[in-house]
Write a structure and sequence with these properties.
- By secondary structure, this protein is mainly alpha-helical.
- Helices cover about 75% and strands about 0% of the residues.
- It has 4 helices and no strands.
- The radius of gyration is 31 Å and the shape is flat.
- The termini are far apart.
- The mean pLDDT is about 85.
């Protein structure tokens, strides 16, 4: 075991070495910054030239794999409806409640709370028709029991 004076000496040495390492790192980062900027500028030039080439040859500039999910810019797929979202969520919650051994009435209450939370987050409300569909989904799932 080291005594206090040896620990202090080792600590001072380690602090000196750490300060030198940080100074070297900062110097290297300063040298690297102009190279990073130059590489970014060259990448931007390549991107612009590729877009011009693709437009000139009639190649589409976006591939189908680059399109976003439905309801967003660049997509041909429509956004999911509130009904689809709620029925999917209701099925999941009903199955979770069934697996947990909950009664159908408790499950319906839990599902309705979840669906109302989702609808409120989207700024919409649940219609009576949708309420009926959700309860029907519960009857289907609990009927399989």
């Amino acid at each position: 075991m080291m005594n206090i004076s040896e620990i202090v000496t080792s600590l001072q040495t380690a602090l000196t070495e750490a300060a030198k390492a940080h100074k070297d790192l900062e110097a290297a980062q300063l040298k690297l910054a102009p190279l990073e900027q130059a590489a970014k500028e060259k990448d931007d030039v390549v991107t612009g030239l590729m877009a011009q080439y693709m437009n000139g040859t009639g190649v589409p500039t976006t591939s189908p794999s680059m399109k976003r999910r439905g309801g967003q810019k660049g997509s041909t797929r429509p956004a999911r409806t509130l009904s689809a979202i709620l029925l999917t969520s209701a099925s999941r919650v009903f199955k979770e409640q069934l697996a947990a051994g909950k009664k159908k009435a408790e499950a319906i209450k839990a599902v309705m709370e979840d669906c109302e939370r989702i609808a409120a987050a989207r700024g919409e409300s649940i219609s009576t028709e949708l309420h009926g569909k959700i309860e029907q989904r519960g009857a289907e799932i609990y009927g399989r029991k």
